[in-house]
Amino acid sequence: MISINNNGASSVAAYNLGNTNVNLQRSLQRLSSGSRINSSFDDAGGLAVSMKLSASIRRTEATQSNVNNAISLMQTQDGVLKSADKVLSRMSELAQLSTDVTKSTNDRALYQTEYNALTGAMNAMLSEEFNGVNLFTAGGDTLAVVTSEDGAQTMGITQADLDDIITNISTINISGASGATSASIDLLTTAIQDLANLRATNGSEQSRLTFAGDMLAINKTNLESANSRISDVDVAAESANLARLNILQQAGTAMLAQANQSSQSILRLLV
Fold this sequence. Notes:
This protein is mainly α and 271 residues long. The protein has seven helices and four strands. The chain folds into two domains: 8-34 and 233-270; 72-230, CATH 1.20.1330.10. Helix content is 71%, strand content 5%. Helix 2 packs antiparallel against helix 3, helix 2 packs antiparallel against helix 5 and helix 3 packs antiparallel against helix 4 (162-169).
């Protein structure tokens, strides 16, 4: 049947051309944004998974930052303990010097003056903080550091008990007639050993935090790769698709023009 009111071929050509134009716009959007999923229509399931992976990546980054801050706290603590080591070594030296039989009472008094000043320096270390967090507490409290993005894994870092060491050495008197006693020197030797233990604990905790940070970095890389496979566009494949759609658009436009012209042949029947 030949009809003037309806042109089925033109309607079909227009419908196909419209679909091609829509797909062409989507292809252009994917290539321009670099993302395969630009709306929930593109891939509803993939978008849901990508959103969860993106949130997990952000939490992993935040956890990395927290772990790095904890490492900085431990490094600051070790810096103070290193200074304390120098102070204790000097105090031990003064105690040994005070036992010299050639030293006078006045000499030993001067040693005691310096010893007392060094004790004050040790006491001042007790108030050291990192961003308002005490580096040292009596009894050595433990701070819990979250080391996984889901919060399930934690490890403890110690606010070292420097107070106990200072309390033991602050009672030593090296100004006596014969200077420091063997018991006093033993106390200082023990204090140095205790300080060495604190630094060893600090080092082991820094090591654990470093490994935790490395694991977070690896997890983040893997999560980013998984998210990329879901959400990022394959540029090579999409470029080929864009070329195909461009050809279809040109062909569709030409066919629509042909379909519109075909109805004009009816006019010849009326002449």
